[in-house]
Every structure is written in structure tokens, then in C-alpha cells.
Amino acid sequence: METREVRRILVTAIGSFAAPAVIRELKKEGCYVVGTDVNPAELLSESTEVQAFYQLPRCDAREEYLQKLGAVIQREQIDGILPLTDAELDVLGADTEQLGGALLLAPSGELLQRARHKKQSKEAAEAVFRRAGNERFVTIPTFRMPHRTEEEREQWLLRHMPLILKPDNGRSSEGVFRIGNREALTRALLELRMLGRAEGYLAQPFISGRVVCVDTIRDSAGHTLALAREEYIRTPRGAGLSVQVFRDSELEAICGALAAELGVIGCVNFEFIKDAGGKYHFLECNPRFSGGIGFSERAGLPAVRLHLGAWRGESIPEDITERITPGWQVKKYIEVVTKE
User: Fold this and answer.
1) Between 200 and 246, where is the model more confident?
2) Does residue 194 share a domain with residue 123?
3) How far apart are the first and last CA of the chain?
4) In angstroms, how far apart are the furthest CA atoms of the chain?
5) CA-based angle 109:112:113, to the nearest 5?
6) Using CA atoms, how far apart are residues 234 and 211, in angstroms rounded to an integer?
7) What's the CA gap between 181 and 176, in Å, rounded?
8) Based on the domain organization, do 82 and 120 belong to the same domain?
9) Closest-CA residue to 136 (of 246, 257, 273)
10) Fewer CB within a 10 Å sphere, N or C end of the chain?
11) Gene3D superfamilies in the record, alphabetically (predicted)?
């Protein structure tokens, strides 16, 4: 990749979990940081940390969102855009020509679709695990909701309980149903029928264990670096609050190979369920900063700096791993005055 200067950066969704660490580390790198969000500045602590803030419409109002975002890009002379949510990444990654010449610092086009699509990312993981020949890493059997009558569909799902129902293009644990009994299944199917979404859902057997998130960085030369954390307390939307950051050379190598298989550049996040026997069941790829990126930063992995460097065409320094300190971490909330 040709070396490119990226200094004036727009960060979307600054009310998200990843925003404090991302903004802090970008400013340490000497970047001019512009923040956007659907909420007004007074509702966002990070609005006090950016050099400029703009409230934008929801990205599902696509045309209005892109028009107003384009005006901000032009006014602030933005040369790099960092989307922090899947919803905005899906919109921005679909057509980067609408970004006014600013570089999308995230996957786009077919690369984004392959990483975000559950079936395609699962196929990529299967290929990597097969080449590695390591039985610690497996994918979860996944079935598309059968195209049958409602009664036949319910009977099919009952035979496979306990299970998880999830949308094929899900975001941040949205629309996920955990089914342990017939009553829960009936409620889930009723809700999906009312929303007209049953045909877009996948079914997976429920795997007991804790979620392990692996922040993984890949530069344009193919060098990779990864750091894992096991999450003990999570929000209902899947953001870690209490975690243990740890090193596992086999897991780190697998995630590096996954990043290469998907062809991503910069920092992405892979999620697994680690069962009682220590086996890792692949869940998904989040082709953006994870909500818990601050945990990796605190442990000594400069993920934001390395992500920016990867998109600038720089290589990952060889001595980074020497600075990483595993351990237990928790997220802490504080009060911030945003307006008087």
C-alpha cells in the first residue's frame, strides 16, 4: 500500500463504547478529530473531547445522512473516516465514492460483505481452521430457518433445542434469541412473524461458555498482531464490562490467519465462545473497533495507532508484544459536564 497522510479524522457514533479510547489515542497521535452522532452534544461525554462535533441524522435515512456527512467532510477537510458502528459502516462501505475523497479507514465493498456476512465469515474460518489442523478451533453448525409451514418450522426447531436464533447480517447482538424451552421458541417465532423477518434468520446450537474477543491488526504487508480478552460481565448488547486480558499464541496466530483470509487491513475483532474444555467456537468477525478496544489499549496494545498506521501504509513494529501486560480490567463510568 502506498504511504498516505491521514491526519484530519472524522469519528462516527462518538456515544459508542469504543469512542473514548479511539478519540484519546487519535489525539495522542496528533490528529485533528471531528466527532459525529445522532444525539446532540450535551448528551455525549466525548463531545467535550473532539475538536469539532456535528449531529447527523440516523444513517438509515441514507440520502440525508450522506448529504450532511459530505458537507462535514468538505467543511472540516477530512481525509479519514472511522465508523464505530456496524450500521454506519454498512452505509459508508457500500459506496466509498460518496465520501468526498476521504479514506474509509475500514473494509468496504466485497471485503466488508464477506466479513459481515455470517455464512461467508464462517466459511473463511472453516478454511483457516482446516489448514491449521488444530482441534481447539471449530465453527458452530449453522442452519437457515427452514422454509416450511409455521408448525413444521416450530417442530424442526424444537428438535434442535437449546439453540440460538440470529439474523444473518446481525449487529451488536441485536435481534438474537436464546431458546431453551417451547415457550421461548413460541414467543420468538411470533415476534419474527410479526416483523416479517423469519426467512432471514439462522439457527445454531447453544454453546455454553464465555465470550472471547480478539482485537486483531493486519498491515498491508500481511504482518499481524492480536490480543484476546475473556468477558465475564457483558451488557445485553454484548459489550464487555469486566474482562481478563490474556495471551494465547495459538489463538493469536489463528486470528492473524483469519484476518489474512478475509483480506482486511487495520484493526478488526473476532469473537469466539470458549467452552469448559478450552475449545474455541467461532462466532463472528466485527470489521471495526470492538466496544472493548480500550481494554487492549490499557493492556499495552496501541491498537488505534497501529490501525491508523496500517491504513497509512506503515508496518507493525516488531517490538510491540514486549509492551503488553495481561490482567483483569473493568470499565468505569464517570460524570462529565457537557453543558452549563
Assistant:
1) 246
2) no
3) 47
4) 60
5) 85
6) 9
7) 15
8) no
9) 273
10) C
11) 3.40.50.20, ATP-grasp fold, B domain
Number of structural domains in the chain? 3
Per the CB < 8 A criterion, the answer to whether 310 and 6 are in contact is: no
Most confident of the ranges 141-145, 168-172, 225-229, 232-236: 225-229
As given in the structure block, the three cell numbers for residue 215 are 482485537
Amino acid at site 247: R
**In the block, which residue shows the cell 481525509?**
79
Condensed to tens digits (0 to 9), the pLDDT of residues 251-303 reads 999 999 999 999 999 999 999 999 999 999 999 999 999 999 999 999 999 99
CATH code, domain with 217 = 3.30.470.20
Q: Which three cell numbers stand for residue 121?
A: 465469515
| Dihedral angle sign, alpha carbons of residues 60, 62, 65, 70 | positive
Q: Which of 143-147, 159-163, 303-307 has the highest mean pLDDT?
A: 303-307
Which pLDDT tens digit goes with each residue over 209-222?
A: 999 999 999 999 99
Mean pLDDT of 62-73: 96
Whether residue 241 sits in one domain with residue 264: yes
Where does the pLDDT of residue 147 fall: very low under 50, low under 70, confident under 90, or very high at 90 and above? low
Report yes or no: 276 and 209 within 8 Å, Cβ to Cβ.
yes
* Residue 1 located in a structural domain: no
